[in-house]
Amino acid sequence: LSQEKGQQVPCAADGERPCLTVIVPVFNEKENIGDLHDRMARTLDEYGKSYELLFIDDGSTDGSYEMLQALHGRDPNVRAVRFLRNFGQQMAVAAGFEYARGDVVVLIDADLQAMPEEIPLLVDKLGEGFDIVYGVRQRRQDPLVRRIGSWCMSHLLYRVTGIGIPDAATAFIALDRKFVDSIRLYNERSRYFSGLFAWLSYGRSGSVDVTHAPRQAGATKYNIRKLVGLTLNFVCSFSVLPLRFAAYLGAALIAAGGMALAVLLGIRLLDSGAPALGTWVLAALMAFLAGVQLFAVGVLGEYLARVYTEVKDRPSYVVRDVLDHGDGAHLE
Ligand code: UDP
Ligand code: MG
What is the pTM of this model? Predict the structure, then answer.
């Protein structure tokens, strides 16, 4: 790689590793890959640091991989990893971290919502001595529900980790090599990187304002189910509060129920002529209690499911193909 791009400044002393890795998770982004690649290559050639463009194909079925093969064939800076099936963006990022060789790692979405031209902004800011630099989207171009969801997520992140991050989606960020290596140690299956980034970068994060555009082509790869799944992963992997909440709720109900029972008994004993509403009270109480119990069981289930997935110890993702340039420099 370094020989082929001799005019670029190598970062490692041995000249084998590039200064910069750009990780791009790709899931059915055929219409965007070409433009994305051209704009990244133009920007980074001009920027002058050696780089690699690392595409992680997260089980695309639209021919995205064939496009990546073509790009790899004509651009020595392009590498690609292909998953066996769709494992989700978080896993694509995880694989990106494993395969990245650069001293600085940049994450960018394939859909051109972030401007590849702004990659140097993030990298320069990181050079000021941060672990992580967030691209904060100015006037975010996403539907209102998504923006509200992200707003809630930011606040939840803040409550749980005590760290306010500027942009919860972390779609466009730059990370330092040492930071990436510490992130890689956290290889639980229910991974939520925004949470990990905030949790591990305490006081060492910076941000720059970046432009945000509507998706260039195709539709969002996220639906409500995926978003709810992400949120649950985040809450359950960073907090046991929901588990405790069930216990607190139970305790409160026992107290309330006990008192109500005492009051009802008292009324019965003091005033034998009071109207009998017992059946209704009972029915309401039963429905309420059944709900509470199911909810508590559900909370247990969420954690149990996660324990189960961890215990099964399956690989988080399976790689089907790797497109590299055969210099073997990344093998550890
Ligand atoms: N993506 C992925 N796997 C998935 C879903 C999405 O690799 O299961 C990629 C997708 O191709 C894109 C990025 O993650 O590059 C962000 O996805 P998208 O733009 O659909 O999310 P949104 O911008 O709507 O949050
Ligand atoms: Mg997008």
Answer: 0.80
